[in-house]
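Re: the 405-residue chain
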Amino acid sequence: MPLSDTAIRNAKPGDKPIRMYDTGSLYLEIAPSGGKWWRLKYRVDGKEKRISLGVYPDVSLKDAREKRDAARKQLANDVDPGEYRKAAKSSNVLDGENGFEVVGREWFVKFAPNWVETHSDKIIRRLERDVFPWLGKRPIQEITAPEILAMLRRIEERGALETAHRALQNCSQVFRYAIATGRAVRDPAADLRGALPPARAKHHASITDPKLIGALLRAIKGYEGSLVTKCALQIAPLTFVRPGELRKAEWSEINFDEAEWRIPAERMKMREKHVVPLSKQVLALLRELHPLTGHGKYVFPGARTNGRPMSENTVNAGLRRLGYSNDEMTGHGFRSMASTLLNEQGWNRDAIERQLAHAERDAIRAAYNYAEHLPERRRMMQAWADFLESLSLSTELTSFKTKAA
């Protein structure tokens, strides 16, 4: 039943906080001291949250309902009212809806659920460190291209050219969001195309010479550290998933009967479920590891607790322990190794790209689903595992049969 002013005025405090509920998840909380606070309860991504809407009688029942309705409109537009309030407070602009930081945080809250956690963390840190301090308090519709360029030059001057390019991209995304929500009319960041020197592409160190690959695999087989790390090092070249996907692997995702590892979309960089066909060699390694970690959640748990996956540096540290420098081989380099050799050996490029879970560059490829080319990928992954096994057993170059007759 909705609240009334009379009921609120006559409400007495108790020994414990008392809640008087109105409609639409609005309620009045009465403290034992007599103070009366308006609260709104809501959910975002399944998580329950609360915000304060002011103190009664300074905020009347009518005012509280208007604030509730405004917050519910934000929720309908996928905007967290609590996060929006934080942004408005931190930007400290007269018109909070138009401050670049307010709009930037609103854009981030809206789109972050579609990104993997590591990607979203990098974006918000970049905005907070490199963009908001200089542009955050400015009304977004008043920001000019020279202002943005001055901010980018600060990043460039410290030698972080790639970060400058990414900051420009993020700014452009925020401006386009502001245009879509009626708070800007154009994107001044678009005027800066070509204003920054091109960033040099980063390449992860990798070994692609078959003889050197054989030596690496033999070194991994002789690894004298923990069994968890050794198995991770052995499985990495056989599956060539991203290091983050490998270390966060869960036993519930492994299907021994189907010889598959199905990684859920929320853990993939491209937010699409991914199937990794498991070769006989990978299945053997997993069965060897299962008695040790199979009682827990993670295939490769951390050294100190089974409740968390191994550190992101574990595989690279293992390679360093084997004598391979960061300029010679990295955990991510196993992907380059597989891509280079599989393409050289004539496997279907689309099957290789799908197995690498790369972003598709055109509409046709973007339409492919996670199971596309799966029969061929199964043959390819087993042939790849057989090839690596043969390299590890011989110092001579071994021929690689790519396709079944």
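DSSP finds 16 helices and seven strands in the chain.
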